[in-house]
């Protein structure tokens, strides 16, 4: 028995080591860094200070956090609206069509995301494909200014993160025992009631994983905001990147990152509590 | 004849062009326990799903209390189903599962609680309200599924092989319990099984199904003792199917030449013509074996096996035909390879696969 236990430990040891080295280590370093004093020009000293956190409370930074949350919420909401039905219906398709759709969803991942975003620029710019089409069809008199706006960023986020929602809803709906839905219908539930009382609660883990998988990145995907938002809208992600590079204030960037991490964790915990889901699709 | 509750009229159903139900008709009376018996793939589950409204027939009608409900969705029918895999909602406890239908009907909470309690008493699971389906054994899940379906006071309870996943002992106990429940409640039960014993034990009437058709509808006694087709004879009674030719008629019997000899068979229909080919069904336990070979048809014992308290013997006739004979006990003074004689009494042989009814 004892030997067996040791063997088990031995097999998971590399995993522990890996996590320690690449997840826990950097995280602790980041937290430590957030209490360090900035000296400018990429330099800092380990003299502890709360200065970095106090600085976040300045209205301009609070504003950034607020804006980021608003954007992440809007994007996540839209991703749910589009991704849930997509994943749900995909699970109901026959095997042949499932495979084809899956391929279509995975295909964009083979192209670098920056290149894909530049594709959107070609479509949406003032003299771009979409405006051209609408003008030619006579729907528009003057070209619309679509790029470098809030909706453009939301669109970029939805586009980039939708597959995660689709796949996690799909894997949840795929596992759903459809005879449960039939049982609900048999017991007197209309199709809508059966969906609300059986299908939705049982696919909630998938939806929740999808929400987490799209909410967290949409707080931090700075390059989408930069490219499609034209730097007009500053998000926490962009701010952190900016402080790391141009601002050359690592401790402040670290403090921003810590606050972001804490806030998202709290939000997810709250969300999990509200939806009362114990296990997440793909999360343990 | 009691009041007719449900009628199927020439119901046809095909999936992707493959016929599953080839036009079936049936009337079911109020309070009846009716069983659909057939091998897997014979269309019995499809018939049940059409009655429940979970499947739409391409042709034909379903009448519930005289009203055409063919196009009515499942939630608007006074019919409830006990599903094969129980289909209990895993995110609800036992009480919420049973009360599900009542909650949909906006029944007051107190009333639901009372009904749930009553239902749990009925299926002998009192005190299990707060359990989750995952915490129940197979037999308990089964009871909850039955309680959930009955809580809605359905006119008909449909049961799709409800005991299929249970072990033999539990099956026997549940058979009796279901029968008791049905008698007590007076609700019409439509029961699906591929197990002939179960069908015979529980049913008022049995519908034997094969390849999308109703082969025979009748009481267990009729189906067992007077099978109409060779399929019914073999599926329900494990009978031997023996081809023969009519020799001559006697009152209530026909003399038939079979297996290189002559034998009598019960027949009350109109006179058969000598020389007419017929098919006989004789159940294995009705084949009498004479080790000393005094009279009867000759055969070699090819194989012996023991199961269910019965000794099964495979007999090989000179013309190559195979006959199964069985009798109680472990040995029958018969050895493999021994030459024996066998016969049956006329009243134990039936003519099957005939167009006219006797």
Which labels suit this protein?
heterodimer; A: 284 residues; MetI-like fold; B: 358 residues; alpha+beta; Rossmann fold; OB fold (Dihydrolipoamide Acetyltransferase, E2P); 5-stranded antiparallel β-sheet; 8 helices; 20 strands; elongated
Q: Architecture of the largest domain in chain B, according to CATH?
A: 3-Layer(aba) Sandwich
Largest sheet of chain A: 2 strands, antiparallel
Widest sheet of chain A: strand order? 1-2
CATH superfamily of the largest domain in chain B: P-loop containing nucleotide triphosphate hydrolases
**What best-fitting shape of chain B do the alpha-carbon axes yield?**
elongated
Please state the overall shape of chain A, judged from the principal axes of the Cα atoms: globular
> Overall mean pLDDT score of chain A?
86
Instruction: Count the E strands of chain B.
Output: 20
Strand content of chain B: 35-45%
By CATH reckoning, the class of the largest domain in chain B would read: Alpha Beta
In the CATH hierarchy, the architecture of chain A is: Orthogonal Bundle
Distance between the termini of chain A: 27 Å
Helix/strand order of chain B: EEEHEEEHHHEHEHEEHHEEEEEEEEEE
Per the CATH scheme, the topology name of chain A is MetI-like fold
Structure description:
The complex is a heterodimer of chains A (284) and B (358). Chain A is built from twelve helices and two strands, in the order αββααααααααααα. Chain A is globular and about 70 Å long. By secondary structure, chain A is mainly α. Helices cover 75% and strands 2% of the residues of chain A. The relative contact order of chain A is 0.13. Chain A has one domain (59-275): Orthogonal Bundle (MetI-like fold). Chain B is of the alpha+beta class. Chain B has two domains: 4-230, Rossmann fold (3-Layer(aba) Sandwich), CATH 3.40.50; 238-352, OB fold (Dihydrolipoamide Acetyltransferase, E2P). In chain B, 24% of the residues lie in helices and 37% in strands. A six-stranded mixed sheet of chain B has the order 6-7-8-3-9-10, with helices on both faces. Chain B has a five-stranded antiparallel sheet with strand order 13-12-11-14-20. In chain B, strands 15-19-16-17-18 form a five-stranded antiparallel sheet, with no helix packed on it. In chain B, a hairpin with a 2-residue loop joins strand 1 (4-15) and strand 2. Chain B is elongated. The relative contact order of chain B is 0.11. The mean pLDDT of chain B is 89. Chains A and B meet through helix 8 and helix 9 of A and strand 6 and helix 2 of B.
């Amino acid at each position: 028995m004892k030997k067996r236990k040791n063997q088990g430990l031995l097999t998971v040891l590399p995993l522990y080591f890996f996590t320690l080295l690449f997840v826990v280590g950097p995280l602790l370093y980041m937290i430590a860094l957030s209490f360090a004093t900035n000296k400018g020009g990429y330099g800092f000293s380990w003299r502890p200070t709360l200065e970095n956190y106090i600085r976040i409370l300045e209205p301009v930074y609070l504003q950034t956090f607020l804006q980021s949350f608003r954007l992440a919420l809007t994007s996540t909401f839209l991703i749910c609206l589009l991704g849930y039905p997509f994943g749900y219906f995909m699970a109901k398709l026959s095997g042949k069509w499932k495979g084809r759709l899956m391929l279509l969803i995975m295909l964009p991942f083979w192209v670098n995301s920056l290149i894909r975003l530049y594709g959107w620029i070609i479509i949406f710019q003032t003299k771009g494909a979409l405006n051209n089409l609408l003008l030619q069809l006579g729907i528009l008199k003057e070209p619309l200014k679509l790029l470098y706006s809030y909706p453009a960023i939301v669109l970029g986020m939805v586009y980039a993160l939708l597959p995660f929602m689709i796949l996690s809803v799909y894997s949840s709906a795929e596992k759903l025992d459809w005879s449960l839905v039939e049982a609900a219908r048999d017991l007197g539930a209309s199709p809508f009631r059966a969906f609300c009382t059986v299908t939705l609660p049982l696919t909630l883990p998938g939806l929740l994983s999808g929400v987490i998988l799209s909410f967290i990145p949409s707080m931090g995907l700075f390059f989408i905001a930069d490219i499609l938002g034209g730097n007009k809208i500053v998000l926490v992600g962009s701010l952190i990147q900016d402080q790391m590079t141009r601002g050359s204030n690592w401790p402040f960037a670290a403090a921003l990152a810590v606050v972001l991490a804490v806030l998202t964790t709290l939000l997810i915990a709250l969300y999990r509590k509200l939806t009362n889901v114990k296990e997440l699709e793909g999360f343990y | 004849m009691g009041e007719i509750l449900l009628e199927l009229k020439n119901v046809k159903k095909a999936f992707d062009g493959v016929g599953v139900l080839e036009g079936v008709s049936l009337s079911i009376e109020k309070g009846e326990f009716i069983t659909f018996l057939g091998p897997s793939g014979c269309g019995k589950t499809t018939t049940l799903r059409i009655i429940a409204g979970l499947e739409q027939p391409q042709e034909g009608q379903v009448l519930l209390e005289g009203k055409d409900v063919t196009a009515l969705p499942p939630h608007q029918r006074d019919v409830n189903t006990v599903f094969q895999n129980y289909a209990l909602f895993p995110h609800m406890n036992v009480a919420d599962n049973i009360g599900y239908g009542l909650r949909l009907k906006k029944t007051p909470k107190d009333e639901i609680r009372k009904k749930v309690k009553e239902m749990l008493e009925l299926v002998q699971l009192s005190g299990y309200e707060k359990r989750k389906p995952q915490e129940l054994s197979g037999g308990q899940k089964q009871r909850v599924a039955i309680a959930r379906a009955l809580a809605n006071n359905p006119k008909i309870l449909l049961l799709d092989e409800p005991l299929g996943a249970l072990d033999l002992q539990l099956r026997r106990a549940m058979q009796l319990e279901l029968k008791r429940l049905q008698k007590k409640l007076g609700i019409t039960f439509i029961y699906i099984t591929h197990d002939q014993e179960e069908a015979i034990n529980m049913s008022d009437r049995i519908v034997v199904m094969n390849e999308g058709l109703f082969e025979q509808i009748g009481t267990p006694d009729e189906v067992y003792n007077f099978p109409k087709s060779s399929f019914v004879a073999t599926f329900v009674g494990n009978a031997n199917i023996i081809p023969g030719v009519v020799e001559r008629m006697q009152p209530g019997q026909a003399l038939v030449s079979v297996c290189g000899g002559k034998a009598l068979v019960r027949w009350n229909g109109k006179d058969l013509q000598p020389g007419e080919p017929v098919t006989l069904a004789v159940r294995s336990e009705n084949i009498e074996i004479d080790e000393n070979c005094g009279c009867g048809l000759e055969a070699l014992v090819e194989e012996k096996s023991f199961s269910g308290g019965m000794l099964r013997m495979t007999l090989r006739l000179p013309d190559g035909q195979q006959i199964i004979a069985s009798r109680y006990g472990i040995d029958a003074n018969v050895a493999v390879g021994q030459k024996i004689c066998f016969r049956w009494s006329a009243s134990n042989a039936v003519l099957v696969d005939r167009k006219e009814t006797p």
